[in-house]
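Handout, tutorial session.
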Amino acid sequence: MADLELSWAVALAAHDRASEHFWSLMEDRSVRFLPQQLAPMFFSTLGQMVAGRGDAAARFAALSVLGRMHRRLGMYPYHGTVVAAAMVDTLRRFGGASWEPDLTGYWEAGCRRVLRLAERAAGALGDGPHVTVAEVLHCEAVSDDVAILTVRPARRDCSLPGQAMPVCTPRVAGQWRWLSPANRARADDTLEFHVRAVAEGLVSSVLVERVTPGEVLWLGPALDVGLSLERAGSADLLLAAGGTGLAPLRALVEQVAASTTKRRVTLVVGARALPDLYDAVALNKLQQAHGDWLTVVLAFSDDRDVEPASQGDLLSVALCHYKPGQAVYVCGAPPLIEAARQRLPMVGVPSESLHLAATFWHAPSSARWTPRQRVARAAASEVASSAAGNSSASPTVSDAT
């Protein structure tokens, strides 16, 4: 079988020139649905999908981006033929010795298939903000493997606290990862992302180690991932955050602070040891500003030098603070989500009060996706099975990989 991945990798090495050529071909054919500034995003995301690269979470993120672009750019089925032809011509031109004649049919069929899935995703996602770019304003290394990126989108952010959005750096064009902002809407329109560099995580490593102020990031549509505060009604909250899973839960605390609904919030933040607590200053400020209704609790799973009340795994410490009637939110790495799904109902937390961050490998039962989102997830699953992809473990919304 012809090697789609190799032909794509070679062309991607000349991404800027290749995406410009791709856009020019469609302009020459009077297919003017794609603005020039969005051509690199569209070209690289489509190519990555056809080449079958990325885990399930990455492919769902990419499909969400293509679906929103399909809807907002007004694409029609006949555009698929021209897009496929432009992709083949571009890969032939920039693929060098990696290009084989047999690849033409594979790429044309792959483009048409992915665009059909994008059309389905467009209907599933519905209307909403367009994809956009964001300027990186600050990059702060807060630990050996975690960085906090502050960005300002070109379009006003309309995401809600607890939602997640696909994020991509042009340094690794076309590879999208889910991140949740750590703040509610600000007057200066900035967003704060917490990113942990994970093992073999190309995108997260680039975001943590290489991205600098002045660069741009690409942002896709924000989606509900099971952490919406609306699900809790007016109930008090118990928030359990593991690692960078703190980001969306910190945004929920900010939402409570700005709300007229009176409720008490207990935020339990887990880390392996005290040096791993990367956001201690912000947590201290939150506690000081909202101590009348907010309690911040620390949990260290492998640090015997802290006070005994803070020793233990995150869920065990969180359960010590659980009170019947609270809505419980959990966000962190996939093992934490799986453990919460199994342990918490067994100790009396009602399923309707338990809200777990989606992993995108499979949706937690408590994350009640809307019918539109279920269709989009089904489409993503179809894409994942239709082409060869990497089968690594999938991240939650809190971790880029």
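The second record follows below. Compare its token runs with those of the first.
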Amino acid sequence: MSDQHTATTADHARLTAFGDHLIALHDELRRDIAALREAAAQLPADGDAPGPLVLPQRLHSHCLSFCEALDAHHTTEDQSVFPFLAQEHPELSEVLDRLTSDHRTMATLLAGLRELAATPSAPGFHADLERLSVELLTHLDREEHYLVPVLNSLTRFPGH
């Protein structure tokens, strides 16, 4: 086989991995939000603590690092992936608009969760974490449903 054929086969393997890579990233986010929820479940429910709810340092750090990772993931999608897909697949415009709207909703929830996690007491932490979890899990399923088949069928790299 020629080197050109080998390069083309390797490029195709990398291209079809885009959707699979997205699923792997989403699975990490799913595991992280589940771990956050599990750790939060060990705390008194909102309003059930004798004093203000104080997040343990480990949960506080995990929450903040999760928020940063999710924000970075959405920023990459909004600035790189979605514009590329909008150009290559205009039929996805409504889906991409919805996914972008989901990102804005989650950005608001993330800001609130970060603010709660940064305060000495965190009233409402459970409720905010649950709202974020529901939004995130619904969003990830929607994104995978609509985008993975498209990402795995790409014939060129974004920017090339």
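Points raised in discussion: The radius of gyration is 19 Å.
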